[in-house]
Amino acid sequence: MALLVVMLAGGCGDDGSATSVSSPTVDTTEPATTEPATAEPATTTTSTVASATSVTLPTIAPSTGVRIVFASNRDGDGELYYMDADGSNQIRVTYSAGWDGSPVWSPDGTRVAFQSARDGNYEIYVMNADGSDTTRLTFDDADDTNPSWSPNGDRIAFQSLRDGDSEVYVMNADGSDPVNVTDYFYGDEVSPAWSPDGRRIAFASDRVGEDNWEVYSSNLDGSGLFRLTFNPDHDDGPAWSPDGSRIAFQSNREGNFEIYVMNADGRNTTRLTDDPDSDVLPAWSPDGTQIAFTSWRDGDAEVYVMSADGSGLVNISDWAVNDDRDPGWSPVP
User: Fold this and answer.
1) 139, burial (CB in 10 Å: exposed 0-12, middle 13-18, buried 19+)
2) Is this prediction's pTM over 0.85?
3) Closest CA to 178 of 193, 195, 191, 161
4) Averaged confidence pLDDT in the chain
5) Domain total in the chain
6) In a domain, 280, yes or no
7) Tell me: the pLDDT tens digits for 222-269?
8) Domain assignment present for 204
9) pLDDT-derived band at 64, boundaries 50, 70, 90
10) Cα dist. 322→70, 78, 198, 299, 302 in Å?
11) CATH number (domain holding residue 288)
12) Each residue of 103-146: pLDDT tens digit?
């Protein structure tokens, strides 16, 4: 599970080490295509929970405003929930016996992709925004996690252990034609994030040394590799701003995990959060004015929202004892 989302441990100022970045030479050979997955739709008007009792899914009305999807174990195991951007109207969306997490809205707001262990190991699933018609997209004995939609909604990037190490793959939105994009045997690649213009994918990798995770971006075929961070610790969880000019990420470069932001070329790194506990998994609001993230600063994991400059921080999930995490914003309706 160390590679699923984040290796967890838990001010402002520029990180000068990223002010001069050059693109390393990479092998631009076309990645090999694996056997296409066969999607087997599974419509779910009802679902079976761990106790084997059948429950009727609640009716989830279409939203008139921006919502946040997140994962929580408040009802026993990890399920997906929605809430309004201010934390109100929290409602459970999934009902499964395995952990559901890392949810992301499709660009048109009609679907949510997520990872789930409901069928044994972690696979990528997609459901309608109202929680209906859950479909499994990946079928592999190794874990497939951390989905990220392309801006036009026709493809999904994800990380997979199917080749023995963690790599970034891209597949069609129906689960067909998965392709290994990073294809680097001597390191792990995790946490893919699609650029808003659809041309590049940001990800984290330890290819420069064990326990030294850096943020990179590449073209969709793996060419044009560009290293964005230069730090001996752990930089991970990249998230592009909606206009593509900035990338938020998490780093423990100053002791514990905090949220940082940098220009899309790696320059002008600024620390946004400052707390003894971990702040991770940043996600931009659709207008680029706010960032949601997961924090342990109140003793358990909660979803917080702050302005894009790090000010105005608010705990919006605010559920005592249990963990709320992995926030993802819906597009503007």
Assistant:
1) middle
2) no
3) 161
4) 85
5) 1
6) yes
7) 999 999 999 999 999 999 999 999 999 999 999 999 999 999 999 999
8) yes
9) low
10) 13, 10, 36, 10, 9
11) 2.120.10.30
12) 999 999 999 999 999 999 999 999 999 999 999 999 999 999 99
- Please check whether residue 303 lies inside any domain of the structure: yes
Query: What's the per-residue H, E or C state across the chain?
Result: CCCCCCCCCCCCCCCHHHCCCCCCCCCCCCCCECCCCCCEECCCCEEECCCCCEEECCCCCCCCCCEEEEEECCCCCCEEEEEECCCCCCEECCCCCCCEEEEEECCCCCEEEEEECCCCCCEEEEEECCCCCCEECCCCCCCEEEEEECCCCCEEEEEECCCCCCEEEEEECCCCCCEECCCCCCCCEEEEEECCCCCEEEEEECCCCCCCEEEEEEECCCCCCEECCCCCCEEEEEEECCCCCEEEEEECCCCCCEEEEEECCCCCCEECCCCCCCEEEEEECCCCCEEEEEECCCCCCEEEEEECCCCCCEECCCCCCCCEEEEEECCCC
The answer to whether residues 80 and 71 touch, using CB atoms and an 8 Å cutoff, is yes
Q: Which residue has the tokens 């470069």?
A: 253
Task: Tell me which residue range forms the domain holding 282.
Answer: 16-329
